[in-house]
Amino acid sequence: MHVPLSARRPLGITALTAIAAVFVALALGLLPRAGAQPTSRLQVVTSTGVFADMIQRVGGDRVDTFSIVPAGADPHTFQPTPRDIQRASTANVAVWNGLELDEVAERAVSALDLPALTTVTLSDGIEPLGTADGDDEAGTEAEHGHGHVGGNPHMWLDPTLAMRYVQQIRDGLSTADPANAAAYEQNATRYLAEIAELDAYALRAIEVIPIERRKLVTFHDAFPYLARHLGFEMVGVVLKSPGREPSAQEVVELVNEIQAHAIPTVYTEPQFNARILELAARDAGVQVRSLYSDALDDQVTSYLDLMRYNVDSLVEGLR
Ligand SMILES: [Zn+2]
Fold first, then answer.
1. What CATH number did the domain enclosing 69 receive?
2. Ligand 1 centroid from CA 37, angstroms
3. Are 194 and 212 found together in one domain?
4. Which of 89, 148, 216, 252 has the maximum number of C-beta atoms within 10 A of its C-beta?
């Protein structure tokens, strides 16, 4: 409701009392001070909800995890605001994928120069596959003017590599909080067994898909590790590099590929507007289904759910 200026009280007794009350409260230690730890739990910052879920499974009730990229957003192109980054200012541990998936957030958090921050890079020690735009890699590097390590960042979509991620998280939490190392070890062991069980389910489930139909066309280039692990061939992707829309000619070529390989289903991803792929699928006369990759949402809220959803979607679309 709009209050006319003349009806407002002058800055008087009420306001001064309120200000004085804050000073009194501060003096008595009643209000939290900036930088104070509200809890003894380990504070962990990461980029996506997929990693936040993994961290929470390993950390249990000993950690609070904050993911900078919101649910349903594309981490490749998401630009955190100063406010998003500010929320990371109490972090003890930072967990990044590496391989440029989350480098904007990583750089912004490292610029905070937090004391005694333990940083975990999940892709460390895993040999990366190339990206769909691999041919342009040399040119891209020259343009960016920095010698980044190229390679496809989506390793977690292969469950055996996700297990390496979980081990990295366990080791990082234990380094930052050695007093609880035994608990992290125990949680990780249980979680690793669940991922192994899921992997066994995946390998069994895809047996119903004929070998000649084990071919993938997806929206962005997130599935080469999953394809390699399951013995699928990556036939095509719509978005060859983050944020770059395909040309009309590239869409025509994709339709030709879908038809030449007799692919029955192509796959969109929930965090993208899939209109281009839907049109290509209509032209090629094939079905459209979805796969989860970089982002969780209300329907799929954990890494294990994401992988189960993907396996079932592959089986239904390609069998
Ligand atoms: Zn991605």
1. 3.40.50.1980
2. 34
3. no
4. 216
